[in-house]
Sequence to fold (712 residues):
Amino acid sequence: MWPQTAITGLLNIKHPIIQAPMILQKPLAPLAITVSNAGGLGSLGCAEMTIEEVEKAVTTLRKNTDGPFNLNFFLHKEPGYNEQINRQMLEHLMPFYKKIGFTGIPDSRTSPLNVFNDEMLSLLLDLSPPVVSFHFGVPQPHVVKSLKQVGCFLMATATTVNEAKILDQAGIDAIIAQGWEAGGHRGSFETNYEEVGIGTLSLVPQVVDAVRVPVIAAGGIGDGRGIAAAFALGASGVSMGTAFLTCLETPITDQHRGALLNAKDEDTQLSRAFSGRPCRGKKNPYSETMINLHQPFTDFPTMYNFSGPLKKYGIDNNDLEYQFLLYGQSASLNRELNATALIEVLAEEALAIMRP
Amino acid sequence: MWPQTAITGLLNIKHPIIQAPMILQKPLAPLAITVSNAGGLGSLGCAEMTIEEVEKAVTTLRKNTDGPFNLNFFLHKEPGYNEQINRQMLEHLMPFYKKIGFTGIPDSRTSPLNVFNDEMLSLLLDLSPPVVSFHFGVPQPHVVKSLKQVGCFLMATATTVNEAKILDQAGIDAIIAQGWEAGGHRGSFETNYEEVGIGTLSLVPQVVDAVRVPVIAAGGIGDGRGIAAAFALGASGVSMGTAFLTCLETPITDQHRGALLNAKDEDTQLSRAFSGRPCRGKKNPYSETMINLHQPFTDFPTMYNFSGPLKKYGIDNNDLEYQFLLYGQSASLNRELNATALIEVLAEEALAIMRP
Fold:
């Protein structure tokens, strides 16, 4: 049915459509389950989860789907501490803190996200999830080796040809080529993303030519046209995040849903103002101010502690100006459907173009 | 043969492949002629030409091809003069001028490029070229009306959905949707391009949905895969610049050719350092320094007068550090062929994907 079965065959899925791992306020297991049951690959962003939470989530997934699923982890390092940068950051944030009446001091010493460690690896070796994926880097050799030994299929994100080659060399089974258009965090680990930013249409064929493993296209794919385009470029599958944000199963705020259903191509901006790493989302006065300062940001993920009070205020008060509404450049193509219907319509649209 | 004939039919060409207008040191008529004779649409960048030169070029084109061809014009305004910005610019340029031994003062009062005016329009009405295209804006109503009356097919560049809608409303016959990946000058006229930058894969379907006229995809299309992808996204044709730069007919410097044949995805940068408008080309110490200053640039096209001594030095001395090698993010896909062979191989590759 699909012209390229490198991904559907390896993952044992009907449609080569991966629901990209995302992290929202509420658990995304219901979305991932629906996607996996509909013949796609459901994913769970595990970066903010404890060992216990990951274990529980996998139990939930296995209870509700016989299909494969993907657990995603961040490969960031422990953040550095730079007093001067933190002080500058606070100075720039003060006017915003004032506006929302926040009088506390954010924690600049404690990282709000665990680093992927051997304890988590050990759990994964016990659970043996069908797919494990990584963002922000290359898993260490013992991680790759042991996960493959228990049968996990490994994926990781590249934003340049160089990063893709590094992941291929490291034994990753499929490379997610994430283009400039993508919403959320750039997976970059070897490049200054603000300076480079390769578009999906340009990145995918160059990565396909450079690596031995299947390539999954990500970034700006909003409907069946984007999927068919990704296949034309040589991809064996697609990873879509933004398109799934308006699924009926997706627990986003009303503001976020509203912004997506009224989105325009020019809405978004790539900024470190949210987490300390480049992340694409709807522009707001805070992100625009911070970008225009052209100053170094507090390290990822400590920067979350600095932006956190704004986000909390935005959500508590339904105030769009202070929420971080992450999405990509093709959000205007979003539809509000249940995830089963979305997977079906995406596959139909793509196949109609590919097999006219 | 091609699934979509909106462009091939309207332009009376065999392949919906437009050789994008470019401006190099030497005339590009031989390239445009070869492309038009091979069944594509050859283009001539006329922004730096006088009335007499355009007239002569059209005579040359008509003498050598029965196919249609495209004359491209810039729609910039007369540059403003800002003494403070010019003084800052000179200060930042001084270290570079010193390195190359340039001791003059660039002309900050005279624009090096003519603005498109009624005299040029009058010539075009006499010549009635098959296709006229515009960059950097919307032609005035009397320009659109009179050119259409003499049978010219009109195209213009949009980099956002909003720009595309404006061009559609203005009566343009086909919209060139130019994505972030494209080499050379962004055609933006209603957006702050540094902040937005929509990728081709994201831009094309959104523009297709927003306008009534055919859409031509541009930016990052390097081979048949990119062409097939553009069609999957809903485009009726493609505009390729970088891919034609290494044609045997293209008069580029040996350095430029060498850089293209060894290009990497991460080579390029969008910068105003060359002309005053955002323009994608190979990073060099000058463009990187200027970008990192985050300061306003002298207006387009007066900025050419400031960067000109560096470019001249770079070319005269075969010094890559001071040349402005314009190309897009997919230059690594470039091939060194004659233009006839390139058109044929591009069409074959694309059709093999589209009609497997």
